[in-house]
Amino acid sequence: MTNHKDEKQPSYELQTIEQPKKQKKKPSGWFKPFISGIVGGTLALGVYVLTPYAQHSESSTANESSTKTEAVSTNDTSTNTSKSTAVQTSNSSSSISNMVENVSPAIVGITNYQAQSQTDTSFGDVNTPFDESQQNQNNSSQEEETGTGSGVIFKKSGSKAYVLTNNHVIEGANKLTVSLHDGKTVEGKLVGADPLTDLAVVEISSSNVTKVATLGDSSSLRAGETVIAIGNPLGEDLSRTVTQGIVSGVDRTVSMNTSAGESSINVIQTDAAINPGNSGGPLLTTDGKVVGITSMKISETGVEGIGFALPMNDVKPIAEQLLAKGKIERPYIGISMLDLEQVPDVYQKETLGLKSSQLDKGVYVKEIAAGSPAAKAGLKSEDVITAINGKKVKTGSELRHELYTNTKVGDAVKITLIRNGKEETKQVTLTQSESKEVSS
């Protein structure tokens, strides 16, 4: 993953974009289903030929003839140029259409089913008293659709095929189903997931898989380059919706709250329309290569066209490790931490001994896990970590980003810290992260 410049995150809400559950109508239910009206706007591209108007004076016949000849010549040139432009536009649209038709069989929909507990009160008068044991017998648990998202088939091996999607699309599922290009629905099996990068791999039978997407090189993307997103916005009724936009920015870093804690994620910014249900779908170049997995957007009044996709060069190693081990092995330090900017300035100065130039710049160590790499290296609570291997870190998410992307289990890293107002360096040998561990 690419190193990024430290930057203050703006205040906005990042919204993951899986499709919410569709409510089914029940005789005595609390909700009524509704269908949102969709208004489509069409932008017509026209070619207008501007013919020069020649004012004629009462001059000689020869001059009139010359002027008319010049006007016709100019008009012919303009018309030819316009026809050329129209042909180029048509060819470009046709090329994208062909690409979409070619790659669409590799795009799937994913439905997340979770257990929902229900109480059956249909057995007579609801006012009739009954004991607790009878009530328990009428409690039932069934799996209900809680959300849908998208995915892309990226590998096929023997009788199995594998789908890339977002962790938040499949998280908490008791059952997964995958809808294919031909309308068939098959069972999906979770191979592995990683909340901190919001990625997951789902296994399906390869018997109906006719296309595997080609993974591209996201490092070659440039701002302004045309990209296409394909997914299932608002569920399967609008499956494989195609939207087009440009790369608005590369090498962006955003912070996102996950079930495993806050994570700093490298993303591609795009203005291609992505909506609930697009999560996990591909972001494609015009030649049909997958360069990103659409994941989130900024959800705020007055903000439009700011969506994000996980870069394929970052996705590939995560996907490979999930396929091989079903989980991501991350290096572990063994600290509980807090962004220094959340610690009162008075405490930073008087208790931690920080100078004015050092305030709010680093990670405050709250606790050290017994027997952890940090404990063995001599780190203590109330230390302030300011850098890893010379790379400055101002927040906990930046520390995790540096730790998880540029180091590995077994590495000996140099931790720069401030203790009692003085800068020190400790060498920490990283071990594997503990299960369910959300601190670093």
Would you kindly provide a written description of the structure presented here, covering whatever features stand out?
The structure is a single chain. The protein is α+β, with helices and mostly antiparallel strands and 440 residues long. Among the domains are: 61-104; 215-325, Thrombin, subunit H (Beta Barrel), CATH 2.40.10; 331-432, PDZ domain (Pdz3 Domain, Roll), CATH 2.30.42.10. Helices cover 20% and strands 36% of the residues. It contains seven helices and 23 strands. The chain has helices spanning 61-103, 132-137, 167-170, 312-325, 345-350, 373-377, 396-406, and strands spanning 14-16, 19-20, 107-119, 139-157, 160-165, 175-179, 185-194, 199-205, 214-215, 226-231, 241-258, 261-270, 282-285, 289-298, 307-311, 331-332, 335-339, 363-368, 384-388, 391-392, 412-419, 422-429, 431-432. The strands form four sheets. Strands 10-11-12-15-14-13 form a six-stranded antiparallel β-barrel. Strand 13 (282-285) and strand 14 (289-298) form a beta hairpin. The longest helix has 43 residues, at 61-103. It is elongated and about 65 Å long. Belongs to the peptidase S1C family. Residues 1-10 have a biased composition (Basic and acidic residues). This is Serine protease.
